[in-house]
Design goal:
By secondary structure, the chain is an alpha/beta fold. It has 12 helices and 11 strands. Helix 2 packs antiparallel against helix 10.
Length: about 350
């Protein structure tokens, strides 16, 4: 995968008020969605809106939140596009998002909409078990989340740093919320995270580096989101995946206007575009995204998407609890678990 970055020098040279030097209105989108989707959307959006110059800054969802928060007194971005709804909820509570109800809102499940129209789901992001196909025999492929700390993978696990990753925060919070529901306490969840830590060779700074290390064999298993893995496979990477048998914590991948956006009209136009039926079908066909909209006939989606929706079993857990406690739990994980995990076990 190409480096998921945008040259900051080019970005910061853009006029942030009025129109750009070419007479077009600059639109700045903060996103974790990566170049594959964003370059596709940039071309299609600008074709439909020739007076707007779309630029995007690609970073992890936690990094987007940190940036929007740090710019609250002087907003630079216009749209936040992508990331778990849990982190959008934090931003909404802090007054970082502006209300807007797009024309496609009624096609989104109520559970994927924020109170006050502050953010809406666009895609469904699915964490999966990932393995290096050339190095993991077929009979040893991980089948459930507990297999990540099986003895056969000790010291061969690579994990995207959860402090910067909304996907990993969701998976970690899912384990703790499930512990609370099934045992009445958090001890089992913390034990799970400790065993994973003990098996983990490295917490990797970004997805591109994670994939490089897996391909080189520096690690052989991980947990990551399905879209990136399908993109990697399309580019020839030897990365296989499997849905966890116990269930998949489905993430509502959301979009919102940034409060005080310098170019609100252009931002509204992009939100309308990003959730449109045509854009979602394009994203499914060309960038392996699963639409959040429920009004798209299955036959209009590509074969891979229909197959995924048929095979994936959504995890049953208290998503509201996990979202509300994620920040607290991740801080505790960083202080008390990272690098201190209990001895790994399992078979």
């Amino acid at each position: 995968m190409k480096p998921r970055a945008l040259l900051l020098t080019s970005l910061l040279s853009l006029p942030l008020a009025g129109c750009g030097g070419n007479g077009r209105t600059p639109l700045l989108v903060y996103t974790p969605h990566g170049r594959d989707l964003m370059l596709l959307f940039e071309a299609e959006f600008e074709r439909a809106n020739p007076s707007i110059d779309l630029r995007f800054l690609d970073m992890g969802s936690q990094e987007v939140y940190d940036r929007v928060r740090s710019e609250q007194a002087n907003p630079q971005g216009d749209v936040w596009f992508g990331g778990p709804d849990a982190i959008f909820a934090r931003a909404a509570a802090e007054g970082l998002l502006a209300p807007y109800r797009p024309s496609w809102a009624d096609a989104i499940p109520k559970a994927s909409q924020a109170e006050g129209d502050l953010y809406f789901g666009t895609f469904r992001t699915l964490p999966v078990l990932v393995y290096q196909e050339k190095l993991v025999p077929a009979d040893q492929v991980p089948a459930d989340w507990d297999d990540l700390f099986a003895e056969r993978f000790r010291g061969r696990v690579l994990i995207r740093d959860p402090i910067a990753s909304g996907v990993m925060r969701t998976l970690f919070s899912y384990q703790l919320a499930r512990s609370l529901e099934t045992t009445g306490g958090l001890d089992a969840g913390w034990t799970w995270l400790g065993r994973l830590d003990a098996a983990t060779k490295e917490y990797v700074a970004n997805p591109a580096l994670l994939f490089e290390k897996l391909v080189r064999g520096e690690g052989v298993v991980t947990a990551w989101e399905l879209t990136d893995i399908l993109l990697q496979r399309a580019q020839g990477s030897p990365l296989g995946y499997r849905f966890a048998a116990s269930g998949t914590p489905v993430i509502d991948d959301s979009i919102a206007l940034i409060e005080g956006a310098p170019h609100r009209a252009a931002a509204v136009a992009f939100v309308e575009f990003a959730g449109s039926a045509d854009a979602l079908r394009l994203a499914a066909e060309r960038a392996f995204r699963i639409p959040a909209r429920t009004d798209l006939p299955p036959e209009t989606l590509p074969d891979w998407a229909r197959d995924v929706l048929a095979r994936m079993v959504p995890a049953d857990y208290d998503e509201g609890l996990a979202a509300s406690k994620a920040q607290e739990w991740m801080g505790q994980w960083d202080r008390t678990v990272r690098g201190r995990g209990a001895p790994a076990g399992g078979g």
